[in-house]
Specification:
Helix content: over 70%
Shape: rod-shaped
Largest sheet: none
Order of helices and strands: HHHHHHHHH
Oligomer: single chain
Number of helices: 9
Number of domains: 1
């Protein structure tokens, strides 16, 4: 059963987080620039340069951005591969029902058709947790019924060929749901993202503080935009159920399984 609860950061749209971060970065840069002007006027002399500190901080920021981007990209690739693997497992189970007599084959295919619909609806529930739990439990109940029917048939049919073909396929079909759910719930920890936000703001403030020339809105806006877009990409890729970078195309492979039941 699904017990995973979405955190506040996971429920807020990635684009909204990026927009808020964009304006906060500009504000932090402006604040740093104004603090420097105030200190110069107060002491009537140039304040200490922060070139080495800024270099170290930007290096740390680049390292963390690369680390989080790598984490989200690896998770995205894993989820996409698992969706394809599940589609193959279900397709194999459906095709192997052909070795059974028509009466048995009809019953199994009816349950497997309902199973496919439940798995499609599970993904299409998006971020609706109640619907996710409902369709996940429904698919589990159907797969348990299919397993029960197959096991009962194996006890009365002396021929082991049919059973030895279908049972491994059912095992793979059932097991992949747990693996896929675990991969979907495995996201970048919120603590890492919050640290990334704070590091972005700190870097923006110190860059503004160390800026020696007249305030340049083009430089500030470009810096804030690049950081915000990068953070948006990281968060969007880390959310398989929402956003621009999602699992819609891989899940089409499971939707295509409906064609197996049109015969």
């Amino acid at each position: 059963m699904i017990t995973h609860e979405f955190t506040l950061l996971q429920t807020v749209p990635a684009w909204l987080v990026a927009v808020i971060l964009f304006f906060l970065l500009i504000a932090a840069y402006s604040l740093g620039y104004r603090v420097r002007l105030i200190l110069i006027k107060k002491h009537e002399s140039p304040v200490e340069e922060l070139g080495a500190v800024n270099g170290a901080l930007l290096g740390l920021l680049a390292l963390l951005l690369a680390f989080t981007f790598s984490m989200s990209n690896e998770r995205y690739d894993l989820r996409r591969a698992l969706v394809i693997e599940e589609a193959n497992a279900i397709g194999t189970a459906v095709l192997r029902t052909d070795v059974y007599p028509d009466s048995m084959r009809t019953v199994l295919r009816k349950h497997l058709k309902d199973y496919v619909e439940a798995r499609i609806n599970f993904y299409q529930a998006r971020m609706e947790l109640d619907q996710m739990i409902h369709y996940y439990a429904q698919a589990n109940a159907i797969s348990a019924q299919v397993w029960k029917i197959t096991a009962a048939y194996a006890q009365v049919d002396p021929t082991t060929t049919k059973t030895s073909e279908l049972i491994p396929a059912l095992n793979a079909m059932i097991d992949i749901t747990t693996t896929r759910r675990a991969a979907g719930e495995s996201t970048i920890p919120d603590s890492i993202l919050y640290f990334l936000f704070m590091l972005c703001l700190a870097a923006s403030f110190l860059l503004g503080y160390d800026f020696k020339n007249k305030f340049d809105w083009i430089v500030v806006t470009g810096f804030a935009l690049m950081l915000s877009v990068t953070v948006f990409t990281i968060m969007d890729m880390d959310r398989p159920r929402s956003g621009l970078i999602n699992m819609d195309i891989p899940n089409e492979k499971i939707v295509e399984l409906r064609s197996l039941f049109t015969e």
